Amino acid sequence: MLTLHHLEASRSIRVLWLLETLNTPYEIKHYARDPKTRLGVDAAFSGKGLAAVHPLARSPVLTDGELVISETGAIFQYLLAHYGGVDIAAKTQQAQELSFWLHFSEASFMLHLMPLHYANRAGVLTDDGSSAQEAIIARGLKVDIEYIERTLRANGGSLLGGGIGPADICNIFGLEMFAAMTGARSAAWREKLGLAVGPEIQKWLERCAAEPAYKEAQKKEGDCKEALYVSKLFKQPS
Amino acid sequence: MLTLHHLEASRSIRVLWLLETLNTPYEIKHYARDPKTRLGVDAAFSGKGLAAVHPLARSPVLTDGELVISETGAIFQYLLAHYGGVDIAAKTQQAQELSFWLHFSEASFMLHLMPLHYANRAGVLTDDGSSAQEAIIARGLKVDIEYIERTLRANGGSLLGGGIGPADICNIFGLEMFAAMTGARSAAWREKLGLAVGPEIQKWLERCAAEPAYKEAQKKEGDCKEALYVSKLFKQPS
C-alpha cells in the first residue's frame, strides 16, 4: 500500500494532488505543524513522527510497502514510473521536458525563492525593493518567472501543453508561494524588482485551482478556505 | 554525439566528472564567465551562446543529437539510464536512495545554501553569526550537514556505500561551496550557527579530490590549482 506522509500546508500537497490523478489506492498519514513557529513538530533524527519515517523529518515522504522514497521530485518520478506509466528517462524531448520541470520546481524555482522567504521571515525586506540583497535575490527568480510565462504562452496554458499534468502539479507550490509573497509586497517593490505574477501564470493558477483532483487533494489535506492554498503557511499565528 | 555545454567554474563540473566515469565519447563546449561579475556572459532569452542551447542560459545543458536536456539532476538521470545502465525508478531501496541524492543535491542542499551565498554576496553576514537572518538560514543547512555526516559514517565514506559514485558526484559542488564559504568565516561564526565541515565530510572531500575521473574533469575544465575546485568561483576579481 502506498502511504503519503503529509505535513500540513506544505509542498507535500503536490504529491497528494498527483496521487488523486492516479488510479491507485493510497492512504495519508497526517503530521501537524507547531501553531506558533509553523515548523514541523518532529525534530530531525528524533525518531519520532516524521523522523521515524525518514531521519530528516521533512515532508513529503512516500512509503510503498517497505520502500521509503523521499524528495518530492523523486516521489513524482517513482509514482509516474510505477503508477502512471511514464518513463521519465525516455529519449524523447517530451520526456526530458517533464524531467526538467520535475527538477526545476525545487532545484531552480524554490532554490531562488527560498532566499526571499528567509529574508522576509527575518524582516530584512525593504518597502521598495531597494536593497542590494533584494537585487541579488531577484535575479534568478525574474528569469524563472519569465521562462514560465513564456512557456505557458507557447504551450497553450500548461507547462508541457495538452492540459494540466504532472509538470504543472509539481510546480504549483512554488508558484502559489511566489504569488502569495509578491502579492503581499507593495506595487513599488514588485516593479523595482520585476517580481510579479504575469498574466499567463495568473490564468494557470486559476486553472490549477479549478482542477477537481486539486480540490480533492485540498479537501483531504483538511478544508482550505483560502483563495491560495499556500497562504495558510504565511498566516501569522494568533 | 553527447555534448556538455559547460560554464566555467560552475555546477556543471559534476556532469563533466560523471561523463568521465562513463565509457562513452562526448565533447565539451566551453562557455565563459564575465571576469568582473562572475556571471555567465550570455543573457537568458538572448539567443546567444548558452541561451542558444537553452533559453535560460544556465549551465549545464547536455545535448544528445537533437535532444536537449537541462537541470543537473535530469542530466544525471538521463546519462545513468542510457550510458550507465542504472534504472533510477527501480523498486529497490538502493535505486530510491540514489534518486533521493540526485534531487537532494539541489532541491535541499543548494536550496538551503543559496540564501547564505546571496547574503554573503550582499555583505549582510555578521562576524559572529548573530543576526536573525543567519539563524533562519542555518536551520535547514545544519540538518543537511548532519544528515550527510551521519550517512557517510554509516556507509563507510560514500553516500550510498561501495565507494564514490553518482550520488557523491552529484553532491560535490554544493559541499565544496559549503566548505569554501564556511571556511572563509570566523570560528565564532561557525560555532554560533553550527555550520562547519565535519570529519566525515572532510575525509569525503579529500576522497573525491583524489578520484582520477574528477582530476581529469578538472583538467578538461581548465587547469585548476586551487585546493578546492569551487573556490575559483569565490575569488575576488582582480
The main β sheet of chain A shows up as: 4 strands, mixed
Weakly predicted, low-confidence segments of chain A: none
Task: Determine the CATH topology of the largest domain in chain A.
Answer: Glutathione S-transferase Yfyf (Class Pi), Chain A, domain 2
Integer tally of domains of chain A: 2
Shape of chain A: globular
Q: Give the mean pLDDT of chain A.
A: 93
Beta-strand portion of chain A reads 5-15%
Radius of gyration of chain A: 18 Å
Number of strands of chain A: 4
Helix count of chain A?
10
Task: Tell me the distance between the termini of chain A.
Answer: 38 Å
Q: Helix proportion of residues of chain A, in percent?
A: 40-55%
User: Under the CATH scheme, which architecture of the largest domain in chain A would be assigned?
Assistant: Up-down Bundle
Instruction: Report strand order across the widest sheet of chain A.
Output: 2-1-3-4
Helix-strand makeup class of chain A: alpha+beta
For this entry, what is the oligomeric state of its chains?
A: homodimer
CATH domain class of the largest domain in chain A: Mainly Alpha
Biggest interface reads:
A-B, 54 and 54 residues
- Strand/helix succession of chain A: EHEHEEHHHHHHHH
Domain GST N-terminal (chains A, B): 1-87
Protein name (chains A, B): GST N-terminal domain-containing protein
Family (chains A, B): Belongs to the GST superfamily.
InterPro entries (chains A, B): Glutathione-S-Trfase_C_sf, Glutathione_S-Trfase, Glutathione_S-Trfase_N, Thioredoxin-like_sf
